[in-house]
Structures are given as C-alpha cells and as structure tokens.
Amino acid sequence: MPLYQITIKRSGNANAIVYEKGMTVQVTMPTTNNPVLSNNGQNVADAFMRIYGLDVRKAGILNMGYLEVLEVT
Predict the structure, then answer these.
(1) pTM, whole model, 2 decimals?
(2) Residue 55, class by beta-carbon neighbours within 10 Å (0-12 exposed, 13-18 middle, 19+ buried)?
C-alpha cells in the first residue's frame, strides 16, 4: 500500500476556516491512484480533520489547485 504525503500549497481562509501553507498529512491508499481524486478525497479530508481539525471540503481546498501530493514509498 503506497503512502502519500499531502501538503497545502498556500495560506488563506474561506468560509471562516483558516488554513496555512505547509500543513501536511499522510495517508495510505490501497491502490496507486491519487488520494485527492480517489473516493472524492475522503481519506485526505479525514486526515486533515483528524490532525488539524480542518474541514478541507468546507474550505473548498480539496483539489489539486490547493494540495500537493507526493508518494512517499
């Protein structure tokens, strides 16, 4: 199972949610598909909520324009 690191590319705020450049989470995926695009980004959204309490869906940043994805393994 590949491990991916997802990082926010730039700081900002939207819908009263503040997010900072460099906030990073790691997620595993059962396939080699991009975790932001797979399963509507649920794994990524859950990881940001669990670690930072950040609702990336509500902030509107759950897309490749705001997130950088790197395969760690």
Answers:
(1) 0.93
(2) middle
Asked whether 43 and 35 are in contact (CB, 8 A), the reply is yes
52: which residues sit within 8 A by CB, 6+ positions away?
A: 23, 25
Residue 26 in 3-state DSSP? strand
Residue that the structure tokens 């509107």 belong to: 60
- Domain limits of the chain? 3-71
Q: Which amino acid is at 7?
A: T
For the stretch 15-50, pLDDT in tens is 999 999 999 999 999 888 999 999 999 999 999 999
Query: What is the C-alpha separation between 34 and 16, in angstroms, rounded?
Result: 28
To which residue do tokens 């059962």 refer?
30
